Amino acid sequence: MKHAVVLLSGGLDSSTTLALAKAGGFECFALSFDYGQRHQVELEAAHRVAKAIGVAEHRIAKIDRSVFRGSALTDDLPVPKGRGIEEMGSGIPVTYVPCRNMIFLSFATAWAEVIGTSHIFLGVNALDYSGYPDCRPEFIAVFETLATIGTKAGLQGAHFYVHAPLIQMTKAEIVQKALELKVDLSLTHSCYDPSEEGVACGICDSCQLRRKGFKEAGAVDPIAYAA
User: Fold this and answer.
1) 163 Cβ partners below 8 Å, 6+ apart?
2) In whole angstroms, what is the distance from residue 210 CA to residue 189 CA?
3) Residues 92 and 98 sit within 8 Å (Cβ to Cβ)
4) Fewer CB atoms inside 10 Å of the end CB: C or N, the chain?
5) CB burial class (10 A; 0-12, 13-18, 19+) of residue 89?
6) What is the mean pLDDT of the chain?
7) pLDDT, average across residues 25-46
8) pLDDT tens digit sequence for 36-46
9) Residue 91 pLDDT more than 90?
10) For position 93, what pLDDT does the model report?
11) Strand order of the sheet with strand 2-7?
12) Cα Rg for the chain, rounded, in angstroms?
């Protein structure tokens, strides 16, 4: 069986990506990150999803939060709420975490070398996304080249593949695909600013995009929202 490292945050997109990788015949090694994010409840969701879908191993890598300063997800800065869809797509929001996907993919590449695979799965999306530069197809393509020329495996002939199966899908299409794959979406978490009890706020960018996706897909979102 082919092996793959799958980046898993516990959200809608990464959970669907994990299910797609498994459906594609990969034995999956799930990798999550504790980087001091205010929405650490996502790590609990990642654990639930990894267990439900079934992975060979699930690891949580810890990164010093001081590396990721200046973001509303790691610092004491307000998370944008109540923004319109057009506003979300203009400019880079304060929830941008510097070089996050680049660093996460570097960790994933290292683990991929260790387990002897060149396949990495990432749940980024370039259509219904909040202006993040590291969610674009050109970023994925360049990182594949970087991983291939910057590793021992690459020098020995391997080519690294960063699979981003959701990158050209709308949130509605992602919801539909998750339901088709029978992903238990009640286990997932998408909110940037949940309550202390882990309840999604309902009005941050991530919550709004998720709710929009379910509405357009004609499906009922199984998680609770505060607003």
Assistant:
1) 4, 17, 21, 119, 120, 121, 122
2) 10
3) no
4) N
5) middle
6) 94
7) 94
8) 898 789 999 99
9) no
10) 86
11) 57-62, 26-34, 2-7, 119-121, 161-163
12) 17
Question: What proportion of the chain, given as a percentage, has pLDDT over 70?
Answer: 98
| 199: exposed, middle or buried (Cβ count in 10 Å: 0-12, 13-18, 19+) | middle
DSSP class per residue in 13-67: HHHHHHHHHHHTTEEEEEEEEES--TTTHHHHHHHHHHHHH--SEEEEEE--GGG
What length is written for the chain? 227
pLDDT tens column, 162-188: 999 999 999 999 999 999 999 999 999
The class that CATH gives domain 2-217 is alpha beta
Structure token digits, residue 84: 């319109």
Match 């990798």 to its residue by tokens: 31
Q: Where is 3: in which H helix or E strand?
A: strand 2-7
Q: Rounded mean pLDDT of 25-30?
A: 98
Phi-psi region of 82 (alpha: psi -120 to 50; beta: other; left: phi over 0): left
pLDDT tens readout for residues 51-80 = 999 999 999 999 988 888 889 999 989 999
Q: Where do the domains of the chain lie?
A: 2-217
64: Cα separation from own chain's centroid: 19
Q: Three-class SS of residue 175?
A: helix
Q: Are strands 2-7 and 26-34 parallel, antiparallel or unpaired?
A: parallel
